[in-house]
């Protein structure tokens, strides 16, 4: 019988983070955003660039970042001949950069590592995401389908399986977006900072039935960065480092969309990544032990089913939790305390690190004491990303804690 891997728990810590404002940043280049995110992270950690031993750069669209590989990052920061690795794993790219930096530090290959993600999606000229070119799944199973189209299918399947009328289902989805918009108004770095009434969201123009305008996140420009060190040296940099408790990534093969065993709703890659992350972090009862979450709410239905796939809400009952305010800013497990993808925006390579930034600040008690800082007894925060084709997804789950 194979022994379970020991994992990354308590081996590394984040001692500095930075995040730009996300939005339509026409007056800033990708290099400007990289420098801005890095400077905040470096100042937060109290380090100089010459101390960094290696860097991991997350970006999905190389043509926008004016260069391939790690060159855009090395050029923007004038890195002193250190190894730089560009990573791309769909919407989990940012978390993949953190994972690469953490593994390098945990192995002893680096003492201080940088993870940074940047995207200038508005410069593509697309209203939504450009073609991601996923390969056979795209050609044979989902030819010419859009991201709203895929998730609209998931939403209708969810309504049918759990007996929700279209009106009931749309209200639950709108309530999720309403919650995120309430939070986004409090965050000066969020792209969309307005909160329409719930009824306006329910009756908004349809993008792909049943998903309306407020069920879909937008694309944005932005960057975020993290400084990673060994856990045993973290307090040499700051009194309140945030420790990595788990980093898991799971990819579902195309059997999810080419086999009748998939119900068309819940994503197995999310479930598996969650199970492994809880095991790695020593979490036994996630609904009781996780204190805040940043989930991949590319669409409101995505957030709804992720509640269930991560074992926070019972299967088919997430809507009840949503309506009762379980995931609100003042709820049992606040979700998207910074506004989420829905309001913060989604520059793909930066999103996973932006999520970690929010958890990092909340666990330190430094998010915004006057407006949106969560309750004081926080211990564990979770981030989640998924990307690709529904039924054949890459998913990341990371857990962070403020105690060693």
Order of helices and strands: EHEHEHEHHHHEEEEHHHEHHHHEE
Give the number of DSSP strands: 11
| N-C termini distance | 30 Å
The average pLDDT score comes to 92
Structural shape: globular
Low-confidence stretches: none
Structural class call reads alpha/beta
Order of strands, widest sheet = 3-2-4-7-1-8-11-10-9
Rg from Cα: 20 Å
Strand content: 15-25%
Task: Profile the largest sheet.
Answer: 9 strands, mixed
Break the fold down into its secondary structure elements and pairings.
Blueprint: E1 12-19, H1 30-45, E2 54-58, H2 71-77, E3 84-87, H3 93-107, E4 112-120, H4 136-141, H5 147-161, H6 166-184, H7 198-202, E5 206-208, E6 211-212, E7 221-230, E8 242-251, H8 255-258, H9 268-281, H10 286-289, E9 292-294, H11 300-309, H12 318-323, H13 340-344, H14 348-364, E10 380-389, E11 392-401
Parallel strand pairs: 2-3, 2-4, 9-10
Antiparallel strand pairs: 1-7, 1-8, 4-7, 5-6, 8-11, 10-11
Textual characterization of the structure:
The chain is α/β, with parallel strands linked by helices and 404 residues long. 35% of the residues lie in helices and 18% in strands. Strands 3-2-4-7-1-8-11-10-9 form a nine-stranded mixed sheet, with helices on both faces. A two-stranded antiparallel ribbon has the order 5-6. The radius of gyration is 20 Å and the shape is globular.
State the gist of this model.
With 404 residues, this protein is α/β, with parallel strands linked by helices. It contains 14 helices and eleven strands. The chain has helices spanning 30-45, 71-77, 93-107, 136-141, 147-161, 166-184, 198-202, 255-258, 268-281, 286-289, 300-309, 318-323, 340-344, 348-364; strands at 12-19, 54-58, 84-87, 112-120, 206-208, 211-212, 221-230, 242-251, 292-294, 380-389, 392-401.
